[in-house]
Amino acid sequence: MLVLLKRLVLKSVWLAVVFLGITLVSFFVIHLAPGKPTDLQTDMNPLITPEAIARLEKLYGLDQPVHVQYGLWLKRLASLDFGNALTGDRRPVWDKIKERLPLTFGMNMAALVLTLALAIPIGVTAAARQNGFFDRASTVFVFLGFAVPGFWLALLLMLLLGIVWPVLPISGITSLDHARMDWWGRTADICSHLAIPMFIYVFGGLAGMSRYMRSSMLEALRQDYILTARAKGLPERLVIYRHALRNALLPVITLLGLSVPGLIGGSVIIEQIFSLPGLGQLFYQAVMARDYPLIMANLVLGAVLTLAGNMLADVGYSLADPRIRSGARND
Question: Which residue range is the domain that position 90 belongs to?
């Protein structure tokens, strides 16, 4: 237990160093991009003077050197203060993120659960019936999933299901008469608006996840302990789902850890296409407006999710493979 605690402390220190490195690189990179947050207020105003531009830059702290700006931002971050947005309503950044976080996080978590619920059985069945009809059919499905770009599929479904056969809404998250509906009506209205985006999320992740699950399962079925279990006369279902599946889940756990930061980054295009008021759309608007505090807040959230995914993957390894836990005790 003491060894595990020591490793956890060392891991936390290392993650803190990595987090600082991510924020440092991100802060300097976004300042290298052309344009400033004040451009939206000054470029289209023919009466603006250089003195007024200088006052705006001083008001936002943009007149300071980049390293000084980073130090001030890091000091505010220590107290969990992301500052105020430089564009739009100029409200506190964290308030704007809290408004949009539930939609993005909820959609991506639901899509991740659905993807796992479908990908694991598909991968296991394809591996257990290698070169059979189901395996070949799932291979074709996987190739389609890899080949079709998400944004193109989104536009195609919008055309087919929203215009040619108008059965689903293709923009926003609620209808105009949403407030007058009862609870069931409002729930059905939101689900209908999210049906196509959710399908895009699940379809894009299902192809890769099921293929990784199939490859990992095939590797596990070739191990000696599987041959021993079959030689003892154990039922095939018990061999596959009790002995092979647990070890085959390790690569999937790795993918899950890498999928956590995608809860924000993967939503930018889809939320912009379907006009969904989530974090992805907010991040896109912040980048277009050069809103540094809002951009950095989204990047910090992405960094935290990335490091959390790394930590969860380590924990998942220990839960799935007892050899890793025994190795930790022997260190």
Answer: 2-33+82-330
